[in-house]
Specification:
Distance between the termini: 85 Å
Structural class: mainly alpha
Number of helices: 4
Radius of gyration: 30 Å
Number of strands: 0
Helix content: 55-70%
Order of helices and strands: HHHH
């Protein structure tokens, strides 16, 4: 009676059923490397077929970006922020010196 009146559950909840085959969720191996590597290979192949320097250059740029470390973009952003803050400080110092004249 108390559980009906207050909405408190007194029985244990049912656990969700497992999928019929857990193997369906398992990826055994990827096809031909990472998606970036496949994109580079596709671009290089199309560049050869179309004799396109632009596609080959794009593939080279993507490959160069792929070789950068995981934190290179973060480090570059931090360095840009440091340069920006130093420039801002210099501008504020110049303005203060001008006002003090």
């Amino acid at each position: 009676i108390l559980s009906k009146a207050t909405g408190v559950r007194t029985e244990a909840p049912e656990n969700p059923a497992l999928p019929p085959s857990p193997v369906a969720l398992l990826q055994l191996r990827s096809r031909g490397g990472s998606p970036v590597e496949r994109a580079i290979a596709l671009l290089r192949g199309e560049a050869k077929v179309a004799h396109s320097q632009a596609l080959e250059q794009l593939a080279q740029e993507i490959a160069a970006k792929k070789e950068e470390g995981a934190f290179d973009q973060v480090i570059n952003a931090i360095e840009k922020m440091i340069f920006h803050l130093k420039d801002e400080q210099r501008q504020e110092d110049d303005h203060k010196n001008w006002c003090d004249l």
